[in-house]
Amino acid sequence: MRDTRGTRLVLGVLLATALVLITVDHRGGAKSPLEFLHGIGVTLFTGAERVGTNLVRPVREFATTLAEAPSARQRIRALEEENGRLRAELTARTLDRERSEQLRRMLGLAGLGGYRIVTGQVIARRGVPGLEEAAQIDVGTADGVRRNMTVLNAQGLVGRVVRASEHSATVALLTDPATAAGARLEGGNEIGVVKGLGHGMGDTLVRFRLFDSTVSVTPGQRIVSFGSHNGAPYVAGVPIGVIERVEPTPGELTKVALARPYVDFSALDVVGVVVQGPRRDPRDALLPPAPGRTPDRAAADDRRGRVGVAGTGRRRAADGGA
Amino acid sequence: MLRGLLLVLGVAAVLVVQVSIAGGFALPGGGPDLVVPLVVTMAFLRGARAGALIGFAVGLAVDILPPSDHVIGTQALVLCLIGYFAGRAGERAPGAVLSAAVVCAVAAPLLSAGLAALLGDPRAEQAVAARSWIPLVAYNLLTVPVVMWAVGRALGKARPRTAAVRIGRRA
Question: Does residue B20 form part of some domain?
Fold first, then answer.
């Protein structure tokens, strides 16, 4: 009996401590006095996480290689063809460059400024229901990454930086239910908010709430980020996803649709942090080609539209805005 | 002493594996949660008092393990309760580890969700949604025997059940 009482005392003390921690941290918000604990966590665990990810990566790559082997040959052939075509176009383009530079200056598009991007790798990822959908990346304040910067990858919007330490940063993903990003329907000015739904059963969707209920939304329409004030936390024009279905919301002032993000959140690897946003909204220029266009046009769009993260690190604005 | 140190290192390793694997593989349903089974089995073998302490410590580690973006202390509270009740179950019914694990696997996300709701966190509704915790329970059923075996070995007992009985009698 004495033992039970002792145990209850221990439990009570621990629960009280936890409640105090929760209260202090919750009230403090971003300036919480417990922020140093995150620093300790980063010091303790990021090294191990880096090693862990390095161990996991070859296994994952082997698995993907096996899964993709049948289609690889076809893909190589397609890429070779495209490569040849691109090389030819590149020669032509060099000739055109000077002329187009002049034209661009004339049109006042010279200040279109691209995204300045710092690339990093995901070293840890969380996705347990009820907890945050977040990822840890291996670039930090030493690389110019700050809080509230946009994170994207070659497919589209990934999330935003919520905490940055010297050599790593925490990214809240778009699928996190606690994040909200301004979004715009392709080819128009209808704006809304994208919120994460977490993930379950391997199904990752985000909820897009349009502020205007009279706007018609159809599955297949694409959405891009609307951009926040001064580009923090989200810069404008980053592809978000494709509307998959529209939810009936009779009598409500807003319209709700579910969208499938371009980014595969189950296999995040290389991401880019936008350390400087574009000076002008690139509108729909970064969206991947819509299905059903002519291949020529689509290929051209594809080249212009993708946000180059892995290779160059910095995307030339002129290519995206044209 | 050495065994305790190894145990701490082992728990840290499990936490790191948890975040590395979740990012590395596209497992259906988000993949298994190794933390709750770990706390449940350790508490089950060690009793209620140790369970509460273990749960609190592991929970605090989960709270600060990068990437984290929730209020510090929530997982400490949830896992402390889970550890206590798993320890209780271990003392009362030493054979029922699997059922204890299932109950805890269901209870942990619900507790988290309740706390999140109290704090006005929009993640609450997601955690309660059946589509997110049904796979979690299924994964826990698969991982508990493995974790049980590993923890039993780590605690220096070849057969966890007898160990639990011995601790249970002493308590």
Answer: no
pLDDT tens per residue, range B12-56: 888 888 887 765 566 666 667 788 888 888 888 888 888 999 999
Q: Which parts of chain A are beta strand (E)?
A: 116-126, 134-137, 150-152, 157-164, 169-173, 180-185, 191-200, 203-210, 222-225, 239-247, 255-261, 270-276
Query: What are the DSSP calls for A40-64, one per residue?
Result: HHHHHHHHHHHHHHHHHHHHHHHHH
Q: Which of B12, B28, B122 sits opposite A177 (nearest CB)?
A: B122
Q: Which residue has the tokens 């621990």?
A: A14
- Whole-angstrom Cα distance, residue B85 to residue B111? 13
Q: What is the pLDDT of residues A47-102, one digit of tens each?
A: 888 888 888 778 877 877 887 777 888 888 888 888 888 887 777 676 666 656 65
In A, which residues are within 8 Å of B167 by CB distance?
none
Domain around A137: 34-322
Chain A residues within an 8 Å CB radius of B73: 17-22, 25
In a domain, B103, yes or no: yes
A-B CB pairs within 8 A amount to 220
Instruction: Note the ipTM here.
Output: 0.78
Residue of B nearest to A163 (CA): B69
Domain that holds residue B48: 2-15+34-165
Cα–Cα distance measured from residue A25 to residue B168, given in angstroms and rounded to the nearest whole number: 37
